[in-house]
Amino acid sequence: MHIFINKIIMENNRLMILGTNEYQNPLILRAKELGYETHVFGWPHGEIGETTADVYYPVNILDYDLLWEECQKLQPCGVVSICSELAMHPMNFLLRKMGIPCNSLETETLTTNKYLMRKAMKEGGIDSPNFMLVTKDMTLDEVEESVKDFNLPLIIKPCDLSSSRGVFKIENLETLQEGMDYALGWSKTGEAILEEFIEGPEYSGESIAYNGRYKLLAITEKHTTGAPHYVETGHRQPAPLDEGTYKKIEQTLYKAFTSLSISYGAIHPEFRITPEGKILFMEIATRMGGDCIGTDLVPLSTGYDFMGMVIRICCGKEPDFMKIREPKLAENHYIMSMADLEEFNKIKTKHPEMIWRHSNMRPVLDAPVLKSADRAGYYITIK
Fold it and tell me: Can you give the pTM of this predicted structure?
């Protein structure tokens, strides 16, 4: 079967895409622009990708047997997803079955479990804050004893989630139980990582890997709501950094990627630069950054066809680093309040040329924004 599929890969343009939501939709559209026939799989939730796909399959993408059955029928040239942590597992499963090079199961496990990731990076010589694993059967006394030598404040996160879900900053030990309950309540596995909070501005380094070789495409400056939940409010590319800092980040990223044995595809590392100039990671994902970082900001700010690169890799081909547009300053802005919505309407009226694109705007919540899904919408500007 592997030989037959690999032969088909060289002869057809059918591309299997996992995921249908608005953050996956740019991938569907870009694939169509590049001449692929898009076969898109996902739960039937009325998402935009269900209508923009050439062919839509209302399939549970976590049903691996059914996915492989459909893949064998379709005989696609590749399988791809970009922003969904959930979709990375079935994507790599199918790529392995098809014989297309991708990240190992070990790398996949390390990069989707925050505690195992932190442990592997520390063993690989990467600077790390003090950290520990917290499980739902641990008592407050046990955890307090384990963190007695940690520096406050602390931060706790579910080991198995992304998009700011379950994140809680612990300013003092009086709020440790509250933080544990919050993070563990979100976790599907009942595990969280508790670690020293890293001070300093936050960035991410949008990168690509092919056969164990790395290329840093862009550094993103991040803005968040701050404590206690750190929901992202916007991003800017390129980040305003000097050349020396950029080179230091690049070297540190590549060392961290190596410690996790990352070999193929998009990489989204999140890190802070401390007041002392240390580069300390929060986490590393083997996918594009969500929130339009990979789909829009990277091509806008660098000219690189990031989605095209990922598609090629997921079809067993080397990425193409040819630039497809003139680089600009690119930013995305999230609607968190009525003031944010008013600012968007003001820009749209007075400077429409600055708006690259925007989402449909939902009603602004009259409540604290606790996770990314609570935001009312977004818009992307270029200068």
Answer: 0.92
Let me know whether 178 and 327 are in one domain: no
> What is the C-alpha separation between 365 and 377, in angstroms, rounded?
11
Question: Looking at the structure, do residues 354 and 210 belong to the same domain, yes or no?
Answer: yes
Per-residue pLDDT tens digits for 354-379: 999 999 999 998 888 888 889 999 99
Closest CA to 162 of 193, 205, 121: 193
**In whole numbers, what is the pLDDT of the chain averaged over residues?**
94
Task: Report the candidate in 111, 94, 27 with the shortest Cα–Cα distance to residue 281.
Answer: 111
Are 161 and 34 in a shared domain? Answer: no
Name the stretches of the chain with pLDDT < 50. Answer: 1-10
- Percent above pLDDT 70 for the chain: 97
Q: Are residues 211 and 305 in the same domain?
A: yes
Domain final position from 196, 216, 248: 196
Structure tokens at 191: 């595990």
Which tokens go with 93?
């499963």
- Number of domains, the chain: 3
DSSP characters over 268-295: EEEEEE-TTS-EEEEEEESS--TTTIII
Give yes or no for a contact between 92 and 80, defined as CB atoms under 8 angstroms apart.
no
Q: What is the pLDDT of residues 125-183, one digit of tens each?
A: 999 999 999 999 999 999 999 999 999 999 999 999 877 789 999 999 999 999 999 99
> Which of these three, 196, 231, 253, is where a domain ends?
196
Q: Which domain holds residue 95?
A: 2-100
Burial readout 335-362 (b: 16 or more C-beta within 10 A, e: otherwise):
bbeeebbeebeebeeeeeeeebebbeee
Nearest residue to 59 (alpha-carbon basis) of 42, 40, 71, 34? 42
Domain shared by 239 and 266, yes or no: yes
